[in-house]
């Protein structure tokens, strides 16, 4: 079972400089946030999906489609009720709150997808390198990428522990919400302890390989900024600026929504 | 001058009551190949950690005496400072690899030493060539096999170009091929570069090539010497919970002074002493054993027909398996890492469901019933007890299963008592499981399965990470459970455990069953086993050459033609 998100492919997005990809990630987070109207958000989502298609990373998105659908449904439903509008449909639901709910659900999904494309196309070491070149100290960048690296390890330990417990008769999938939470306690202890043990051996392995030996270190991966990096980045930055301008002028909002 | 000098070393871990090491004096000379052996908790790993200063600089505690690496004392210096002289490779290859590609993993060490990128490229190429992973540069470490991962771990320290490489049980989690790969690389490194090498190892046969063997017991060095000096003292090895060599054991019992260490030497000694093997006695022994076992077996309890299993990434792990296991059998499932053996046994309690074909357990189709139905029939002991232990006391841990099945409290009490008695942990009910040794935690895991009173018990690698004495204890327990009527299915890499305990062997290779039969018959076919990358224990290979298949030293002794003259 492969728990890593990175997809080893050779696409134009994979070849982008990590610095460009980090900045594009910020743009692809900002763009959905700058829009309130569902049609505008749909446009932003489409843009991100096209980016993902170029990166041939839609397979990873398909892996979590259930989660994406659930997030969409729940956040939509919540805002159907809680957002306030001027054109009542039924009960507390208004035409504007429906639009707002759909837009919010889609927005969150779009941002998750943007993050996923980034992780599918950028190696951990490239993220570290990119962050350093963007001005972060090595230690901070290393901690960040190591945290990302440990996620699949924890997920793997979690899968093994839950199999061990299910073999002993633990039925995780039934009972009320509270009962289910209680059932997770036997899972958490072994996962937690094995994670501590893992990080401990990781620390020993790092030290044994000379980590932190001298303040200066070289990097095997050499980043090279190329013309198409500029092209991609300029495209996303310009879109973000235009989008911000549209928001300030009120083009992207839902008329009749009471804030 | 010695590379590492240890004088009067004593170390107690922070929070520990007993010293992990005491009175250690040791010199490691350039170009030496040292094998360290000893029981669990003898201090082998701690000794390794002192060699590059991880003890006492990262692992804190009370440190007395001195460890000098090329004249510099380790205490008070950064571990990374010594990495260019001594590097460590650990048992757990999962946690020591953290990069996303093979190439970057190997580059990490030299990067820390500020080596220019062009030179790193050269070092990566060279290190990967040495461990035979050329061509794997862009692969993800996570997708390599166990043996490949451990080789990568070795490459990732070789690129630092150290003088000493110390490996702490590098092959414990590996299948026989993986073990072989690691050891052949170790000997190649020694021949090419005269690299100093220190390996902690459980298996005696691999220690034969060493220059020096160090035997540890309870934090001290009990004995050291050449393999011939150390390995011919079976009593000394047993005293340190190290499995003696079969040949030395056999000929020692026969009263020989000069003990053979290899199968060839054994055959030679056998011929020279004019010993003969009584085929008649052998045949009657085999027949008696066979009929006793046959009589005990009941109805089929697990029936597998045309089983195929594909994982979500479309990898087909099982490609059509047919297998019937009868109640009361003791089956060992052998095969390489990734051959599909764990995937197979996870079908026996419904953890996995067939992609095609069917698995019927105690009359229930695993596709139709939910997993908690199978938990009462089939108990599954996972490889690592720490993946299931969670409770604050041993008693609570063992009672967990029966409680989930709604067993009344009075009966739970009784079941916990019986289970702990069976695993010989009675009296430890109120202990915290995490304060026990690995061997004891393994037993707690078995007890917690036993308390649900399953008819079938599956054990995944029950002896991994245990020393010889603990392995014996564990397997005697499993044998008793089988005698009590439990059907035993065990996934294992350990060939001697299989030879001495299993009634039947199933060999899985590339998702198919390639051999299936009584242990004795399967172990007689050495060529076929080798094709599945398995090598039977010394005593089996020895007796095969004599024209019979004996599974233990005792069996050879029993079939010996009585002699007049006694020993030479």
TrEMBL record, chain A:
Bilayer topology: Multi-pass membrane protein
CDD domains, per the entry: EcfT
Q: Which domain of life is it from?
A: Bacteria
Q: Name one Pfam family in it.
A: CbiQ
- Keywords attached to this entry: Membrane, Transmembrane, Transmembrane helix
Has keyword Lipoprotein? no
Q: Give an example GO cellular component term for this record.
A: plasma membrane
Keyword Amino-acid biosynthesis: yes or no? Answer: no
Membrane-traversing stretches: 38-55, 67-86, 98-119, 131-151, 227-246
Task: Kindly list the places in or outside the cell where this protein is found, as annotated in its UniProt entry.
Answer: Membrane
| Descriptive protein name | Energy-coupling factor transporter transmembrane protein EcfT
The organism's lineage is: Bacteria, Bacillati, Bacillota, Clostridia, Neomoorellales
From TrEMBL, chain B:
Per its UniProt entry, what is the enzyme's top EC class, as one word?
hydrolase
Location comes to: Cell membrane
Topology within the bilayer: Peripheral membrane protein
Q: Which SUPFAM superfamilies does the record associate with it?
A: P-loop containing nucleoside triphosphate hydrolases (SSF52540)
Keywords in alphabetical order, please: ATP-binding, Cell membrane, Hydrolase, Membrane, Nucleotide-binding, Translocase, Transport
Q: Which domain of life is it from?
A: Bacteria
List, alphabetically, the InterPro entries matched: AAA+_ATPase, ABC_transporter-like_ATP-bd, ABC_transporter-like_CS, ABC_transpr_CbiO/EcfA_su, ECF_ABC_transporter_ATP-bd, P-loop_NTPase
Family classification: Belongs to the ABC transporter superfamily.
Know the name of this protein?
Answer: Putative HMP/thiamine import ATP-binding protein YkoD
Q: Which organism is it from?
A: Neomoorella thermoacetica (Clostridium thermoaceticum)
